[in-house]
Amino acid sequence: MNERKVVLYISMSLDGFIARENDDLSWLSLVAKEGEDYGYNGMIERSDAYIVGRRTFEIVKKHTGGDFPMAKVMDCYVITGQEIDDEGVRSYSGNIKSLIQELKLGQGKDIYCDGGSEVVRQLMEENLIDEYIISIIPIILGNGIRLFSGIKNGISVELKELNQYESGLVKLIYRRADYSI
Questions:
Q1: How many whole angstroms separate alpha carbon 12 and alpha carbon 155?
Q2: pTM of the prediction?
Q3: Residue 139 is assigned to a structural domain of this protein
Q4: Residue range of the domain that includes 81
Q5: Residue 132: count of CB within 10 angstroms of its CB
Q6: In a domain, 35, yes or no
Q7: Residue 109 belongs to a domain with what CATH number?
Q8: Would residue 162 count as lying in a domain?
C-alpha cells in the first residue's frame, strides 16, 4: 500500500510570487488556454483531502461567487484560528503536523495543499511536503506575496519531472529528498 503524500500544487510568477500584495490573481489568466488544465484534473483525481489557509480559502470563495468547489469533491481543511461555517469545510487551528499525521494514518489518496504561503511555511518547517508541483507563470510581478517566505531551514528536493507548455508555463515536479540542509 502506498503512503498518502502531501502534495503542494501551486502556481507562482517567475520571481516567486503567488499573488500581488492586494491578493490579485488576475495574472494567472495569462496562461489560460481552452482545453489545457496543466495537470489540475489529474491532481484532483489523485487527492481526497485538501489543505488551504484561511486567506486563500476566502480568495477562492470571492472568485467563485461564495462557493468553495473543493468541498464538493474532497475533504477540506482550512488552517485558521477562526471557525469556518461552510458546508464540507472543516476549520483546523491545531498543530499542522498533527493534522498531517492523522490524515496519513487513514486510508485514502494524496493530500493536496494549495497554499497560501503561511500554510506552506508551516508544512515546510515540519518537513511535511512530500512533493512540490510548481507551475511557473511567465510573468515577473516585482512584488507581492512570496511562495517561500520566512522558512527557517532549507529543504533539499530532487527534480522528478519538468513539463513545458506552449503558453510559456513551465511545471516543475520535485520530491522531497531524504536529507535536509
A1: 19
A2: 0.94
A3: yes
A4: 7-25+55-180
A5: 24
A6: no
A7: 3.40.430.10
A8: yes
34 within some domain: no
**67, 76 in Cβ contact below 8 A?**
no
> What cell was used for 9?
500544487
Q: Please list the pLDDT of the chain residue by residue as tens digits (181 residues).
A: 458 999 999 999 999 999 999 999 999 999 999 999 999 999 999 999 999 999 999 999 998 898 999 999 999 999 999 999 888 999 999 999 999 999 999 999 999 999 999 999 999 999 999 999 999 999 999 999 999 988 888 889 999 999 999 999 999 999 998 755 5
C-alpha dihedral sign at 62, 21, 157, 136: positive
Quickly list DSSP for the chain. Answer: -PPP-EEEEEEEETTSEEE-TT---GGGGGG--TT--TTHHHHHHHEEEEEEEHHHHHHHHHHTTT--GGGGTSEEEEE-SS----TTEEEE-S-HHHHHHHHHHSS-SEEEE---HHHHHHHHHTT---EEEEEEES---SSSEESS-S--S-EEEEEEEEEE-TTS-EEEEEEEEEEE-
Domains in the chain, number: 1
